[in-house]
Design brief:
This protein is an alpha+beta fold and 136 residues long. The chain has one domain: Peptide deformylase (Peptide Deformylase), CATH 3.90.45. It is built from three helices and five strands; from the N terminus they run H-H-E-E-E-E-E-H. Strand 3 and strand 4 form a beta hairpin.
């Protein structure tokens, strides 16, 4: 189901809690909402649609990658950039890393460990910040 984008900074600044198999509906809603906003959004965290769960979805080309309970385990190549967010107006400066390694579970709760670089790494870092209650 497509959900409304949350703009309440008090809610968005709360740290998200771990997700589990009972949160399958959250994963579906997150995918549906990202797809509906694909023309203006490349990634989304569950708190952006009202669920305080550690789930993100990232658009990589034509495919969406679901990351449940993601944890960035290493990062290298710091740089400064500007980002926008559907939940906030305008753009803000932030520090990101060119290359990151992420441990996460997929939608079936299988564990993965992958390295991401460039723009995809930037999107993941933005959405992972959401899970920590960090607003750019």
């Amino acid at each position: 189901m497509i959900r409304e984008i949350v703009k309440d900074t008090f809610f968005l600044s709360r740290k998200s809690v771990p997700a589990g198999p009972a949160d399958a509906r959250v994963i579906r809603d997150l995918q549906d909402t990202l797809q509906a906003n694909r023309y203006r959004c490349v990634g989304m965290a569950a708190n952006m649609i009202g669920y305080n769960k550690r789930i993100i979805v990232v658009g990589i080309g034509l495919m969406n990658v679901i990351m449940v309970n993601p944890k960035i385990t290493s990062k290298s190549g710091p740089y400064e950039t500007e980002e926008g967010c559907l939940s906030l107006s305008g753009k803000r400066k932030t520090k990101r890393y060119q290359k990151i390694e992420v441990e996460y579970q997929d939608a079936s709760f299988r564990k993965h460990k992958r390295t991401f670089e460039g723009y995809t790494a930037q999107i993941i870092q933005h959405e992972a910040d959401h899970l920590e209650g960090i607003l750019i």
